[in-house]
Specification:
Largest sheet of chain A: none
CATH class of chain A: Mainly Alpha
CATH topology of chain A: Helix Hairpins
CATH superfamily of chain A: ESAT-6-like
Strand order of the largest sheet of chain B: 4-5-8-9
Distance between the termini of chain A: 82 Å
Number of helices of chain B: 15
Number of domains of chain A: 1
Structural class of chain A: mainly alpha
Structural class of chain B: alpha+beta
Oligomer: heterodimer
Shape of chain B: elongated
Shape of chain A: rod-shaped
Number of helices of chain A: 2
Helix content of chain B: 40-55%
Radius of gyration of chain B: 28 Å
Distance between the termini of chain B: 27 Å
Strand content of chain A: under 5%
Strand content of chain B: 15-25%
Order of helices and strands of chain A: HEH
């Protein structure tokens, strides 16, 4: 069964959607982090803000990776599709070549058969004529 | 000084953002899994795409867990802060003996005004200076006279401003400036209006808040204000080189001492006591007593400290209640914080523990809490550094005023305490015409543990108690008590009785409140 590029594109779009959702989550986190500068000012609030910042950074990495994977899925699917098409083309050409050869061979056989038949007919006619001549002399 | 500002309601509300982020992230995790299972195996097998999807799946799943953990920690911390603060409010009320939330702004203001007019007496300073300036002025240059008149004028301005501002919104703070005349330190301390002080002393007299804790419905100000006029004065002229001026001031101080019956330095009695209240020699006494504190001053501090903690409780959008924590809390804390039980179980007077031990503070903090929560015997250590006249003298005294059960028991060592008073009054009366300062500080600690520390450092009595369970609150205060001639002269003995009763009650309330909080 051939590769379903459309399906692969759909999966890639899913991943891109995931990346966008993570962007949304990151935006929420950014707003969340702001509370540590506005509504909670103390040493430990800095720790919390730092922890959220760490999550944001790794979320960025995940977003990039998801988008990269999405692109790779599409390109891979297209590559596989191309490979499949190339393979099919080659198979068709081979098939056509074989059929042409078979046709030629058949024609040759037919020609030979025809020639043989002609020869045979000629022989038969010749024999027939010879027989006819012999019968007349005896009379 | 740690500054704390937390709006627990907003912190908790903001958790919705974290929850949304977590929810979205969790959804992404599921969708990545869906993509993984729905993608052609031919694709997954190429370029390690399958492994990469697995990796990003794990990464996002981990992020989801971390978001949940952070949000949980933050909300728990905020809620614990809120609970602790509520407990502290309750503790404050317990110590004060009044329901702070039932005290209205007007009654609080009235009380403060009364305190200002009856206890805080910058007017007396003004009068004394005016008298002094009206005397023959031999030995004083025009510049020096101008300086002294300036002081008197500033005090008068405070007086006027205080009266004029009495109907306005109050922002009580403590202001202090000091100046050295020769070796005589003159301190002035008053409860002033921030605004007026700024206008009177200029930018150099800006008042600082040492600590502020704000929540959605409450504001707690722990304030310490410093008048910077000292800098201006010291740079404008130098009295150190003028012996006559120094003598004049010293004479003035001596006159005040005679007037109020305050013993002079040479009459000072220095006594030393061990933790059991037994008199010991100076050589056997602890060596870390460096600064002054007198019980009489403690009594005085009761008066001024009212203005040092200003609690504002907002009720809805329109209402608010202003409450003031009295100095009983400080006194109780001061007393409680002057002792340490060493690792070997021996009792030791160590008000200077923080200063003396330095980097070992953390270890002692743990011990302190254990001590506080127990019923160990406590003691009192005081160190009096007096500057009277031209000579700086110090007297050190140690007294045991705590019973075996941890309750104050003035009777236990009444004689020791009485001796202590005498010494302290001698030491402080001549120095501090009017003075003292109290600052209260607060901090929030995350994941550190329980602690309590009290000590004297650089002349400031420090008390810092707290417990960190995840996120905890510590509350402390700093007290630099100065002398007050009026206190000494008017009713030293009566003040002592009041102080002991007040301190005893405050301490016992504090202990009870502490145990109910963290016991």
């Amino acid at each position: 069964m051939g590769i379903d590029v459309g399906s692969a594109n759909a999966r890639a779009n899913d991943l891109r959607g995931c990346a966008n959702d993570l962007r949304s989550a990151k935006s929420n986190l950014s707003q969340y982090k702001a509370v540590f500068g506005n509504d909670w000012q103390a040493t430990e609030a800095g720790y919390f803000a730092s922890a959220v910042g760490g999550v944001e950074n790794r979320m960025n990495q995940a977003i990039s990776e998801l988008e990269s994977i999405a692109g790779d899925i599409v390109s891979t699917a297209n590559a596989i599709k191309q490979e499949e098409e190339e393979r099919a083309r080659r198979e068709a050409e081979e098939r056509a070549r074989r059929e042409e050869q078979e046709r030629r061979e058949a024609e040759e056989r037919a020609a030979k058969e025809k020639a043989a038949a002609t020869v045979a007919k000629s022989v038969v006619q010749s024999v027939t004529r010879s027989i006819s001549k012999g019968t007349g002399r005896r009379r | 000084m740690a500054r704390i500002l937390i709006n627990t309601a907003e912190v908790v509300n903001s958790g919705s953002k974290a929850r949304a982020a977590k929810s979205t992230t969790g959804s992404v995790v599921g969708r990545i899994a869906g993509v993984r299972s729905g993608t052609d195996s031919q694709i997954l097998s190429r370029g390690g795409l399958g492994s990469r999807l697995d990796a990003v799946y794990n990464k996002v799943a981990q992020l989801e867990r971390e978001i949940a953990a952070i949000q949980n920690a933050v909300e728990n911390g905020a809620m614990q802060y809120q609970r602790t603060e509520a407990s502290l409010d309750n503790l404050s009320r317990t110590i004060m003996g009044v329901n702070a939330k039932s005290a209205t702004a007007s009654t609080t203001r009235s009380a403060l005004e009364q305190l200002f007019t009856t206890t805080i007496k910058p007017l007396d300073i003004s009068e004394e200076l005016q008298k002094f300036l009206s005397q023959p002025k031999s030995g004083l240059t025009e510049e020096q006279l101008k300086f002294l008149k300036d002081i008197a004028g500033r005090i008068e301005k405070i007086k006027v401003a205080t009266k004029e501002e009495s109907e306005k919104k109050l922002e009580w703070n403590e202001a202090e400036w000091q100046h050295e005349f020769g070796k005589t330190v003159v301190k002035m301390l008053g409860v002033e209006y921030v605004k007026e002080l700024s206008e009177i002393f200029g930018e150099a007299s800006l008042i600082e808040f040492l600590g502020k804790i704000s929540t959605a419905n409450t504001d707690h100000y722990f304030v310490k204000a410093e008048g910077k006029a000292e800098d201006e004065m010291t740079t404008s002229m130098n009295f150190e080189d003028n012996k006559k001026v120094g003598d004049k001031i010293d004479n003035w101080v001596n006159e005040r001492q005679d007037m109020y019956g305050i013993p002079h330095e040479k009459e000072k009695i220095e006594k030393y006591y061990d933790e059991n209240g037994n008199e010991i020699s100076k050589e056997d006494a602890e060596k870390f007593y460096e600064r002054e504190i007198t019980l009489a001053e403690l009594n005085h501090t009761e008066s001024v400290s009212v203005s040092l903690y200003d609690g504002e409780y907002r009720i809805g959008e329109k209402g608010k209640i202003t409450a003031t924590v009295c100095e009983a809390e400080a006194h109780a804390g001061i007393s409680a914080g002057m002792y340490v039980i060493a690792a070997d179980g021996s009792h030791r007077f160590s008000p200077g523990v923080k200063a003396e031990i330095g980097t070992s503070v953390t270890a002692f903090e743990a011990e302190w809490e254990q001590q506080w929560l127990g019923d160990e015997m406590l003691g009192l250590n005081t160190d009096i550094t007096a500057t009277v006249g031209r000579a700086e003298a110090s007297a050190e005294a140690v007294a045991q005023i705590w019973g075996e059960n941890g309750e104050l028991d003035m009777q236990l060592n009444a004689s020791a305490s009485a001796e202590l008073i005498g010494g302290e009054l001698e030491g402080s009366a001549g120095i501090n015409i009017l003075g003292g300062e109290i600052g209260v500080k607060g901090s929030v600690n995350y994941g550190i543990g329980a602690h309590a520390e009290v000590g004297i450092k650089d002349g400031v009595i420090k008390c810092d108690i707290g417990a960190s369970l995840g996120v905890g609150v510590s509350v402390g205060f700093e007290v630099d008590v100065g002398g007050m001639v009026d206190t000494v002269a008017d009713a030293a003995s009566a003040a002592w009785v009041e102080a002991t009763d007040f301190v005893s009650e405050g301490w016992n309330s504090l202990k009870s409140g502490w145990n109910s909080l963290f016991g």
